[in-house]
Amino acid sequence: MNSSMFISFEWKQMLRSRWLQLVTILFIFVFVAILMIQQMSLPESNGFTRQTASILNVLLFLLPLFTLTMGSMNVAGDVETGWFALLKTYPMSLNQYIFGKYTALCLSFTFILACALGVAFTFGGIFGGVSLPIQFIGVALALIFIFSAIGILIGSVAKNRLHALALSLVVWALLLLLLSYALMAIGTVIPGHVLQKLTILFLHLNPVEWLRFSYFLLAGQATVLGPTYFDLIQFYESILGKVVFALVTLTWAVMPLLLTKYRLKKRGVEK
Amino acid sequence: MKIWLGVLVAVSSYLLDMSLISANSNDLQSLIDATEEGGVLTLQEGEYKGNFLIQKSMVIIANGHVVITSEQVNEPLFRIEDSQNVSLKGLELISSGTAIKVNRVKNIELSNLVLHKVFSGIEVYDSKNVEINHVSVNGKGHHPSNSGNGIAIFTSTDITVENSHMNGVQDGVYIEGVKNIIVTGNEVVNSRYGNHFMYSENATIVNNRFTKNVTGLMIMMANEIYVESNDISDQDGFNGTGITLYDTKVVEVQNNTIAGNKIGLTIQKTANVRALSNTFQMNQTAVESTNSENSNLLANNVFIGNIVNCRTDEIGLNLKNNYYDDYTGIDIDGDGIGDEPYVALQSFGQWMVRKPVYQYYVESPSVVLLNQLDQQANRGSQTLLVDQSPLTNKNIKQYKEWHLNHWQLSIGIALLVLCLIIWRRSVLT
Hints:
Chain A has 271 residues and is mainly alpha-helical. Chain A has one domain (3-266). Chain A is built from eleven helices and no strands. In chain A, helix 2 runs parallel beside helix 5 (94-126). The longest helix of chain A is centred in the middle third of the chain and has 33 residues, at 94-126. The relative contact order of chain B is 0.05. Chain B has a 31-stranded parallel β-sheet that branches. A two-stranded antiparallel sheet of chain B has the order 32-33. With 429 residues, chain B is an alpha/beta fold. Chain B has helices at residues 2-34, 347-354, 365-377, 406-428, and strands spanning 39-49, 52-54, 58-69, 78-94, 98-118, 120-125, 128-139, 151-154, 157-162, 165-167, 171-176, 179-184, 187-189, 193-198, 201-206, 209-211, 215-220, 223-228, 231-233, 241-246, 249-254, 257-259, 263-268, 271-276, 279-281, 285-290, 297-299, 302-304, 308-312, 318-320, 323-324, 342-343, 386-387. Chain B contains four helices and 33 strands. Chain B has a domain at 214-396. At the A-B interface, helix 1, helix 2, helix 3, helix 5 and helix 7 of A face helix 3 and helix 4 of B.
């Protein structure tokens, strides 16, 4: 089985999955509902408003949750059901397996995103047009690429599908909520300048925060973060900063895949 | 041959015109000096150069397009001193320094002036009855910190600044030590402060538009200020603020639209502020109060689409009969007032006041969830940022009209058809 055949097979399997179909409906419903309600009730604005914040948060809440759970359960399921053992009998390397899984997962969620955009534009077209900055689509794609890789990594760590689901939820809550709460709580007892440095550190270590920060940079709205982060924003608006930005984003997509290979090798499942 | 003759005539006529204008230029100060007290000097269309002094009652008016360029950068293009009843009308002034400097003048009118590439537009000192209208001031395009003010008025009384436009200056209108001033119908963009009031009394600021400045309206150490029907929008830089009131007493802010600012209204060390019937829309924080007294009132305002409605470090802010788009209470008796109080208090908002570094987390997923929990937990708050009588039936405009957007509809349908084809091919084959 070559790479393209494996990707095509995995992609078909995912689209046939009831779970993905339900996720598609749920994501479309929430995304379109929030987009339409906000657009009806508020005038258009170029700045960072509650409207843009709501749409960004829908993406940040839902896409990582779905990609992590589906990606991790998919890989864990392969090992648990013996499908991976069967695949080992095919002339296919571990790299091909990981890349195939990753590509199929990314394609599936890009498909969901395309469906959501299709419905949003159709409704928007009927009701006078919706405003959806291109940066949102960029951040959504980056979320898919990064969290699909992390999902596959979690799947390689988990013992079975239930374990993968539990781990995914823990990682999702940790990245989306708990790390921020921990930092905010620590911030009440440490000086502001220390909290600022910790925030900058965790911004790079937490892909959710990194992609939120990326949105502000790409949309030219980094002033939202306040004057405390002036130097950081200045850096990322420089040429060197843009190179570092691209490298960090790429690292977040590639590193989990490399760790997945290491994990699967360590578990002795390489062909 | 005829063509060459035509060109020759045109060039000769142009050179003749230039020499006339040049003659006029050299004579402008002489013309000013020669104009009798209270007389009218009509300048013919053309370009004049130099720096000029007016010390008598007179009117200078343009007949056609009159451009006057400064020759000495360190000197104002026009100095008007120790006189009364002076008018400048219809001139275009170009100066890389100050365009007009007025000292100790009574009854002066500066109208229909265009000031280009100036460091500073108009400076008025120790004068009385000053009327400035239809003046356009364009800075050099430098950062506001390297520019002068559009119109600056110091220690004067009875001033009117109206229907003027300022772009790319430090402060659009800077007022210091002035009594009785009306600022109306002006527009200030891309500057530091739209209007900046210091140590002044009895000011009326009506129907102005301040947009894309660091701060729209900065009022410091001033008394009896009336701010009505202004559009104060999109001050969205790092420290962008719609209106800042600092150490000020007796201020009425009424019927203004304050939208798209980092902070809509900041009240610092200030007492007796009445903010009535304003629309606070889509600001990052609508109202912030610090170190202020308990006498400040926000009533009958509309809060729509702001990320944080109100935040304060002390009590300092009384809320009454405002409309909040995130109010979740009900109105069973239908009197238009919610049956339970609205609590604007948010833990995160309070943290941002105390430590600005928290601003990083504004409306992040964790903070959104925290705010939801706060709304439940803070319902018991009876003192801080509580509106006991929130409005529920404010007529809110629907911003999208129902009409077909063919372009977007086509893309939407095309995307859906494409997705359907992909899904059918993948699932059903």
